[in-house]
Amino acid sequence: MISKAEKRVIGQRLLSAFRAAGAVEIAPDILLPAGTLLDLYGEDIRARAYVTSDPIRGEVMLRPDFTVPVVRAHMDGGAEPARYCYLGEVFRKQDHGDARPEQLRDNEYLQAGFELFSRDPGADAEIFALFYRILAPYDLRPVMGDMGLLTAAVAALPLSQARRRALAHHLWRPRRLSRLLSRYSRPAPAREFAETDAPWTGMRSGAEMEARIASLRAEPDEPPLPAEWSDRLARLFSVDAPAPEALEMLDALAAEINAIAPPLARLRARIEAIAVQGIDPGAVRLSASHGQREMEYYDGMTFSFRAESRPDWPPIASGGRYDAMTRMLGQGREIPAVGGIIRPGLLAELAQTAEGARC
To answer: Whole-model pTM?
Structure first.
């Protein structure tokens, strides 16, 4: 059993490395106003956040993540460019599904992180290279993705705006996305809704329900998604290879999905910038669907570092670009932003396992 003190020692080492990279330490509150923060985190974190009601503050939550409160603090008057680092606890309910695992994951655990607010086009490579160097002693598997590829592909589908919007909403939920694509790929049956004077009940307003019914009634008039587009999306989502090979696969797809060409060009420039940082692109796996498994506020490059010996673990480190969030929280201001977090507790467990194997 690894103590909190031992985990914090590793966390302090990470914090020192982040400070050495030019970051200023920041310490957001543990108890945060819920409000718009829950909307920014997306459905996964909304379901796992500890939320309660305060008689003065209203709805509040225990901090589930650092990025959103750091962005709020920066947009309230931070300098530009700016680098921040932090170390502290986050709190999340752990949903283990139907099967209770032998070893429960922590509901409260340490996060150490680094956030960079900068208009420098090399910011993505800077962050990735920083994490790569810090984590090199742990022999982790680096994986990269880019949500820009997926959002561009969905925006290019020959579907109505309403259907494209629904697919974009579920990009971070692969199973729901797959079901929706399957539904949109065949003719929709006509639906009948009984007229009633009964009052509306539930969380949605009457206007929202009427709009939903109107949408369902109109579905039979929607042409289904052509089979070739379903095939193109399937091939895009399945791209998963060392970065140089993955780029070749994406080049071939860009000839069929022209809309992914601009984000692909940015991705190639990012891989080249990482190579300039001294990292072999062949050592980085590029997965087009990687961003689907990360935070919903990421809208560009995403990355993670995983322990191949522990496929049951969450990523030991993860991060990405979240420009849209600064627009939402900036009240008229915005600045490109990218960052990531590392879980010191998992590093401590990994080091303990390696030590045990040597004994």
So the answer is: 0.86
